[in-house]
Amino acid sequence: MYITKKEGIPVEVFKDTIADLKYKTEECKCVYGIVGTFAERWYARFFTLNIFALGRLQFEIKKFDGNYEKSGYKLVNGDIVIGVHIPRTGAPLDYSEVKKSYKKASEFFKGYFRGGVTPFLCESWLLFEKHAEMLGKTSNIMKFSADYDVFEYGLYEDYGEVWRLFDRKFEGDLSALPSDSSLRRGYIELIRRGEKTGYGRGVYLYENK
Fold it and tell me: Within 19-146, where are the H helices?
């Protein structure tokens, strides 16, 4: 069953995509203690059919900014790639589910690409290089990161982004941050040392199967 004949989007994809409304509401409850949202600008991309949830991950068609080359495959400024987003669903970032999402996306967007490779682009705090010091290689985050050739790293000016990990704003009191995981403990120690947090920008050249 499809939402419209014109777009040919399965109802399953619509349901998975629009579920982000629920995720963002739960996120607001965690961070601010109230039912609501603080990501209102994000929603427009769902209703304009610019972003889709395909399994565990979300994807959108976008233009590549920069120049990239690996093993003879090139991306130049303006090339079409698939942007990757990792929604906060409340479920683990299970690597087997992540791989299924890439397969679904390669099929969903196959009309945009030729050849045997689908280029994915991800810019996320999950690709922060310091995670290798905090997590083992078998962790879900490190497995996710390992697929990407990270060609650019950046640092945040303050700790305004750590709510994504701690489900609350950091207001200067480290003792108020939950420390029930290796990653959370690693970030607490990083902040204690006065170091900055950051993100990575990487390309995953998915071989279509």
Answer: 20-32, 40-47, 95-108, 131-134, 140-146
Q: What is the pLDDT of residues 67-101, one digit of tens each?
A: 999 988 999 999 999 999 999 888 889 999 999 99
Kindly state whether residue 4 falls inside one of the protein's structural domains: no
pTM: 0.91
Separation of alpha carbons 79 and 155, rounded Å: 26
Quick one: CA dihedral 62, 65, 71, 72, positive or negative? Answer: positive
- Residue-number span of the structural domain to which 27 is assigned: 11-207
The b/e string for 86-111 (b: 16+ C-beta within 10 A; e otherwise) is bbebeeebebeebbebbebbbebbee
Please report the pLDDT score of residue 7 as a whole number. Answer: 63
Count CB neighbours of 156 within 10 A: 14
**The CATH number of the domain where 201 resides is what?**
3.40.630.120
Structure token digits, residue 38:
């603080």
167 lies in some domain: yes
Residue 131 lies in a domain: yes
- With respect to residue 2, please indicate whether it lies within any of the assigned structural domains: no
Domains identified in the chain, total number: 1
In sequence order, the 6+-apart residues with CB closer than 8 A to the CB of 88 are 23, 26, 27, 164
